[in-house]
Fold this sequence. Notes:
- With 163 residues, this protein is an alpha/beta fold.
- The protein has helices at 8-13, 20-34, 57-66, 99-105, 124-134, 146-152, and strands at 52-55, 71-74, 90-91, 113-116, 140-143.
- The chain folds into 2 domains: 1-41, no CATH class; 52-152, 3-Layer(aba) Sandwich (Oxidized Rhodanese, domain 1), CATH 3.40.250.
- The protein is built from 6 helices and 5 strands.
- It starts with 7 loop residues before the first helix and ends in an 11-residue tail after the last helix.
Amino acid sequence: MTTKYRPTFVKYACAPMISRVACALLFGMSVMAAGTIQAGEKIVSPDAIPGTTKVDAEGLIALVEKIPDLIVIDSRIRTDRTQGFIEGSKSLPDIETNCMTLARIVPARTKPVLFYCNGPKCGRSVKSAKVALDCGYSRVYWFRGGFEEWKEKRYPYLKKSNG
């Protein structure tokens, strides 16, 4: 079971004597004041995720050749796979990724695992890779360019109907 992010100040500021509404308002105002949520703001994944090895499309191909037991996980929602997906990848959307679901696909925490999603404007693989690290996986790779880069470079991919 994954734990949701809860800022440290919420633990102290939202003591039992403060109503849930007041707590939610306090949290919302502090996030907005920090400038992390803005209307119309686009998601841009970070340049790096500490604890992972970032690869590009060619790096992914090299990894598959070098590490035959590499498990590639598509962190996009299942309907995105109708646009296409990298052959051999397993679907595990970020919203379903936790230690238990990861263990079903990657039983050994020392086994190499790579995450991808739609590309730099998609945060799903970022979230999944961080969950894997939190679960103790030690060989985590991240394909930041994702399916967008894969298609742009005209690498082959599979298409499957959503049914």
